[in-house]
Amino acid sequence: MGKRIIESPVPFALRKIFIEKSSGELRITGEKFEKSLYFISGDLCFAKTNVLHERLGEILFKTGKINQAQFWDIQKLLAGQKNKIGSILVANNFLSERDLHFGLMYQVRAIALSTFSLTSGEWDYTSLIPDFQEDSKFQIELPAIFSEGVKRFKNQASFKNSFSSHSLSTKPVSGAIRNSLNPVEIDFIDELARHAPAPVSQIVFRMNVAEEVFWQNLILFFLLGVIEFGSISPDKETNKSVDELNAFYEKLKTKEIDYYELFNLKNTVAFSDIKDVYYQFAKKFHPDRFGDVHDLELREKANFVFSRINKAFEVLSNEEKRREYDTKGYKEIQNQDKVSENQAEKAALFHRKAKALYSQKRFLEASSFLEEAVRNDPSKPSYFLLLGMIQSNVPAMRRVAEKNLQKVIEMEPWNAEPLAALGLLFLAEKMDKRAESFFRKALAIDPDHEVAMAKITELSGGEKKQSGFSVFKKKK
To answer: FRET pair for 72, CA 20 to 30 Å: which of 146, 315, 345, 415?
Structure first.
């Protein structure tokens, strides 16, 4: 029986294959997909897929090895043929043997990388593999796959929840692995080794990297087998931390404490000293330190205390904000914060009303509420995204809808949703080529984006249903 991806992500299976240098087939199945990865001595050698946008023709078109006219002619060439698609394309001068080799290797990598974003389905591993021809085999080292794949990993939150309260230790990094890393990754593991062994919740604050980047790199080095996690049992130190949190929470709730008093500092303190004291407080009261304590109220207290600590540091560590704070004082700054909080609450209320109206297809009313939401809080990309999607349904509003969706792209260039939304907008305007370009951009960010995949299929004249075609099979 296969293992569920939600409980054991595919990259964890790849980690075991890499560390044990094993040979075999990793088969991954879900409601709409079926993929197989094949390994020899821990290296990825070939792959199969039934996913439409992972077919060889799609890959060659995406990478510019064939043009659109050739792409549309592929099905005609395959009619009645039993040879592999690659051989047919070379025989018809669509591409060279070198470009075919590139396309096949790119495809194998693409199939492997797509497994990092899976959150549903099952996987199963067997040590038996078919006997493939030598010209169909590759030798793709998994460290390079891991380095790119962790950027697509969608189970980071689960990984973080599982290991943030554990201790971490590092192993020596082999020359082969080190050669596969980029300079930033090398600097990260070297600094990580200087801080370990220690609890993860402490290390994350000692290292000068964003928390999301920290966990992304931590997953990478976990897959490479150069870090290990150990459990931390509750002890007197944990009980002491809980007592300190409760006391500090009561202090903040019972009276108004200015930012200097919060950190036990004088208003003449140097910037460097503020940073040192902040790290001490952040390590002591970070919510992750209380993750193993089964008390939701305590967790909420930690979140409250930690937000106050961060707000104080944000002001005191910025020269301009600190000068304003010293001039206006605590109460006036707090009043300004309350105004901002009230505006954010109003915006959230308008957003909720707009979502309800959108679900009822009352687009004009929904648009009005969303416009109020972005006016009160223009910092939320999700508000502009929904506004653009709503306005796309009203022909007279599509020009402004395009501007709002473009704004989301500027704010979140890693998000595939506004690109897909623009594709739908231009499709509604009968601008198929422009629509297709946005759908392809969406797939470049999220290769599993269902809407983009379906629309690309329609625009390419293909069937909506995914075929069982693989570059390694012969056409029957």
So the answer is: 415
What φ, ψ does residue 392 adopt, rounded to 5°? -65, -20
Q: How far is CA 1 from CA 27, 123, 138, in A?
A: 12, 9, 29
Question: Within 10 Å of residue 321's Cβ, how many Cβ atoms?
Answer: 13
Name the phi and psi angles at 470, rounded to 5.
Answer: -135, 150
Q: Identify the weakest region by mean pLDDT among 18-32, 39-53, 449-463.
A: 449-463
pLDDT digits (tens, 9 = 90+) for 362-391: 999 899 888 988 888 888 888 899 999 999
Q: In residues, how long is the chain?
A: 476
Domain range list for the chain:
3-149, 156-230, 236-328, 342-459
Spatial distance between the Cα atoms of 14 and 35, rounded to a whole number of angstroms: 14
CATH no. for 236-328: 1.10.287.110
Rg (CA), the chain: 27
Distance CA 468, CA 249 (A): 59
- In sequence order, what are the residues at sequence separation of 6 or more whose Cβ sits closer than 8 angstroms to the Cβ of residue 296? none
Q: What percent of the chain has pLDDT over 90?
A: 30
| CA dihedral for 376, 379, 382, 384, sign (positive or negative) | positive
User: Is pTM beyond 0.70 here?
Assistant: no
